Amino acid sequence: MRYQALLFVPFFFWLSNAVELTDLFFDRGAGPGSCRPPQDEIVKSWLRDTVTLVDSTLAALGGAINNDKALKRNLNAWFGIKVKATDMDPVEADRLDTVTRSVQSVKDFLEMRNPSLKEPQIDGSGGKPWLFCNSDWQHETELMFDGDLGLPIYAADGVTQGNLRTWPIPDNANPADPFIDILLKMRQGSAPDWAHYAYWSPDIRDYVIEKASARYPGNPPSWCNGQDMTPEEQRFGLTSVSQLRDTITICPDAFDEAKSEPFETIDLTFASAAARSVRMDLEKTAPRSLTLFHELIHLTSGVENTPDVGTKPTECLKNRLRKLDMSRNPDSIVFFAWSYYLENNGPEPKFSWHSGKSAARLAQ
């Protein structure tokens, strides 16, 4: 009964494929972090792939699961879910429901049926989340800005811009006030070993406060600068729902064939030799468009509800074998959807991919 709503997936198929980035995200134009050519067209192609995988997955989960052996194999491999017609394990049934709801939430967003959109504000974004293609839309600072208009806040002399680390805090200040909370955090520690660092966005007109252990790397500091960390860390995307505007940031590494997945889109994967090769790693067939799908799971189900407890197919599958609950892990959901779609729609000869490698296709 809980899958009844999914029976309407085919009806929405046309609408999903017609959706544009500007329907879903606020178009902020040029500026730091903008998705400039060719990134804008690339992300549009990623959106089309996401629609394809979401529709495929929901159609399968809303169908006769017991008759779909490929789906049952993938559900067991990625999440430890063994589908039964009756007397299904309640824990596994709950995991199946979690996976389904996560993909359905992305579907709702793609159909512009997102109940979690924030209220429209003066920036004209209409409550839509913002999409960036680099993290330089935020900059590390100690200076104070007005959250309403984004203008500098000046000290009593009218000349010196206020500093978050030294601005006077009234004796009767309420620590629960968000601005007072920022000032209190920014005073912890002392130079050069401050406990917190602030990142201001003139677009969002809001700060992010990070602990020193999570300070953005590089010079100038930027979240996407994972290559400046020790050891080096590849950073593909970041979703935030804690500011005045929800945001998705796609990092430059996510567009890089040498650092991210090997193919731009599903079509390019299907045209490759990798999709036709036996014993091929699933990761080596993956389209880079999976990054957008991953971040949309964070956005629509909530960052706190979708912790990254495994990345890449091998780690996701190993964690499942360790009996970890992977039903909320975005990469597990994304690669489950990709493995199932590749088995059913990939080029000939078709393979089964649920083990993380291509193998002779099993009974359907």
TrEMBL record:
One of its GO terms (molecular function) is metallopeptidase activity. This is Metalloproteases (Zincins), catalytic. Residues 1-18 form the signal peptide. InterPro entries: MetalloPept_cat_dom_sf. The keyword Signal applies. Keywords: Signal. It comes from the Eukaryota.
